[in-house]
Amino acid sequence: MSGHHHPEPDCETLADTLGPGGEPISAPTAPLPATRGTRVLAWAERLFVRADAWVERALPRDYNPLAQLGAAANAALLLATVSGVLMLFWYSPSVHQAWSSLAELGPRSIGGVLRSVHRYASDLAMLFILGHAVRAFVARKFPGARWLAWVSGVLLLALVWFIGWTGYWLVWDVRAQWVALDTMKAVDVLPIFGEPMGRLFAANHTVPSLLFFVVFFLHMVLPLAIAAGLCLHLARLSRTKLLPVARFSVWLTVATVLVALIVPADVAAPADMALKPQAFTMDWWYLWPLTLSARLSGAGVWLAAGSFLLVLATVPWWLGRRRARASYQATVNTSRCFSCTQCAQACPFGAITMVTRTDGKPFPSQAQVDPDRCVGCGICTGSCDTQAIGMAWFDARRVTRELQDYVSGEVAGGKAPALALVCSQADGGWDFFQAAAWRARLPGYEVRPVPSSGWVEPKVIESLIAKGARAVLVVSTVNSDPFCREGDAWLPLRLRGEREPHFRPNRADPRKTAHVRYDPTRPGDLTRAAARLWQGEPSPSATRPTRFRLLAAAAGLTVLLFAGLIWVSDAPFRHPTAPVPELVFSFRAYGDWLDATTQAAADDRPVHMRATMHTNRSRAPVTVRLELDGQAEEHVFRPKGFKSDGASIGELRRPLAVGAHTLSLSVSTAPGAESAAQVWDGTFTAEPGRLVVISFEPGTGFRREP
Fold first, then answer.
1. Do 481 and 379 share a structural domain?
2. How far apart are the first and last CA of the chain?
3. How many domains is the chain built from?
4. What is the pLDDT of residues 439-460, one digit of tens each?
5. Rounded to an integer, what distance in angstroms lies between the CA atom of residue 353 and that of residue 293?
6. Which domain holds residue 606?
């Protein structure tokens, strides 16, 4: 391990002699809670902690999905990406062949299995991302220095959802049909295209192949942006864990393949723009916006999506509290810093760096806290033998002296006290610490809350035992994703001498101290462990679950996880659009040129050589006359373009009663009521849930969708 060795004799004593350290500061009021609604969020977090406890009774933490939701999401995304790339051997990115290239795959052929793996891995990624976001939210890991991780996480969630949305478009089944229609409804609100894109989806033959390929290109390229987003998301963390342990990733992959073989992902009926599909199953992990977009206008879709993202992204500001940084962040007493670098190595957020010395002490560097990254977890305090770094509201020197005075006073009275230093996060945070409840769980112990178990520096335990304490018990939370990240893991390593600053057995009896994680589902375990420490009995060796129990627990967790996943992935859906028949007339026509007056350009060449130019090149409006069952109506559509020189484009939709109808359509491109028009006359029978689609294009004229 890098860094300078701690000098001897005792670092704190040496720090006192080398420079003015001052008396321990007085205890100011504990900082305000970081967020509003803390009580509700803390209650929700306890549910996750209890779930952790239940899972880890049978499985090690490395195999607990709740303990690594972010890393598990990355593993699922990687599996989805690899399976998606391999699918290109079978998939045809063409609007005319996309559905058949997938539907013709056998459900248990190599291509069919890969498609199912791609879908289920994508669903797993969304499940883990949502779980990661909810857990971070209830754990209040978004205010202050953590705002960047939260905002980038929201953007990553939106990006992954959009990639999945485009992926379902590429299947070109009835689900993709509604995805495309609702997307175009929103796109047409934007002043991007010269003509409404939605009208291109009125008939099968007008669906643009180029747009389909653009969607395919986005679906293939956008996953690269996830890597850039992850760099931003993890920028303020130390020792980031991008992927779970290898065995967890293998388990996830094998389980997904097995589920793909047992329950292959289905392909819905092919898209047919002349149909109004109503009832089908859909993947709610990605397609849930269909429940809203069908009920909203294009502008309403943008307003709802923008408001939703804005509310999520601004959580750190409207739910977080404004707090003075000095009230909760770590500070450095430079005169006591020995340049050991332990605080910089222990900080889970990379908030501490070693900079050039400024006070002339005979050490090469000193610690410096970055206020934009410090969350006030207190882990740095437990790494510092000289107590040169810590939080003002819970000053290590003051707290240590109070504990030492308590032990000395008890010993002077003929008692050998036992102390329990309990992580406040075990109760959901400092504001919810229940001292009476902890005293009931730990009879005979003097209970004192600490910010986290990582705050406890081994030298504090040594000094308390040396002064006569009968036992010093440190209790941390079983929470697999604690506020201080991996900081709760440092104390056990220090007590075993595996991490500096380590516990020194030559200064205190190691049998008088213990570290226990509190399991709220089995509170009796803590009481028994405390009793054994009080009586000086050795702690029993941890029993490792048998291989059968591990396999049974892993199988049960797999069944539970994928059963819920598939239920949401293939749940019933009924589109809110009414199944009444409908007449759709979509057209694009060019009106005749108006005022096509020309004049010779001003030059000196002979008349027959002079160029001509148009003084006005605008087009006439296009008049559309529709007569349905004897009821006539007329509409005038002005040409597009800044100079009114483009095509006239429009779409008429009329609900129909089931049964036979007569229809007459005329399109006039010249001004005046007497001008010639192109006419279509015919009869048709309206059927429930079907569209009668008639289109008009220059050069081809009228066409009825078969």
1. yes
2. 76
3. 3
4. 999 999 999 999 999 999 999 9
5. 49
6. 582-704
